[in-house]
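Wed. Picked up where I left off yesterday with Transcriptional regulator, TetR family. The coffee machine is broken again, so keeping this brief.
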Amino acid sequence: MGKKGEETKRLIREKAISLFAQKGFKNVTMKDICCETGLSRGGLYRHYDSTRQIFSEIVNELMSAQDNELSEKMNQGRPAPQILEEILDRYCREMSDRYTSLSAAIFEFYSEQQQDSSNHMLLKQYAASVDMWRTFISYGAERGEFKNVDAAEIIDVILFSYQGVRMFSAIMPLDEQIPRRIISHVKKALLP
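Structure written out below (tokens, as returned):
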């Protein structure tokens, strides 16, 4: 696929993200995406076969971006507390933003996928997140910038709190202090 085709696919994914955040996974149709992008049905189907394919690429892209961001910052030798602050600031903003959360759509997408036992994409993504955070926590501890902690415990708090708040914020207004308290707890647990 040429540069123009890749650019069109990027545009499709970009526009589809807002639709999935607003409507969930199950309620977005290819027709909705055509309307949002201005593409004809044929133009859209030239790039994607289904909303499932589009959503899957979006989720994979988001996961890769986070993994790459952390790896890049560690490879640059940046201080672990600075990296942590940047990540947790973004998490706090995302937990507070109920209008762009894909959590409900992710839940719908993967709960439907559980019927197909050959598809373990969510578990793979969860395992990748755990590995990424474990590597980062080790990085900070080895540099003496993080406390020696039970990494699995902190990772559970980070991942499940983040996703839980994102899920709930998508369906009801939440006290804006909730994300701040979670972030504060993570910082207290990791920083000396």
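Quick read: The chain has a mean pLDDT of 89.
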